[in-house]
Amino acid sequence: xxxxxxxxxKGHPRDKQxxxxxxxTEEAKASFGMEESTLLLFxxxxxxxxxLPKITxxxxxxxxxxxxxxxxxxxxxxxxxxxxxxxxxxxxxxxIGRNRFIEMARAAGAVYKLQSSVYVSLEAFDEYIEQFREKxxxxxxxxxxxxxx
Length: 149
Fold this sequence. Notes:
There is one protein chain. The protein is α+β, with helices and mostly antiparallel strands and 149 residues long. It is 36% helix and 21% strand. Helix 2 (36-46) packs across helix 3 and helix 5 (98-108) packs across helix 6.
């Protein structure tokens, strides 16, 4: 049974922990804290915008992935793509421990020392981390048969 007020599945033991994959524009607008027109532009650029006959849905994961390097300038409504981050922010951004993040950033050659601060280039770090991606594995029992050409 669905509760219309909280939009959760009633009786599910972890109903508070269920994360939505697709959200309506109103929900995304509230969670990202931006105007609807700006949100739709970002969602379209991220490939996260799905226009159905009566509603518009946004894939939250794709939009968050696209916006992870964007930074909202305080006092203005502008978003800027960050190129450098501090070590603590980068370790949170990539969900990696601080020491491991520093080690990987040094291996990537993405470390910049400016006066007493240490910054990491996100572009160089992203390129380095892509080499650890595993190749896709074919399923033993595919869901559909490939068409023969």
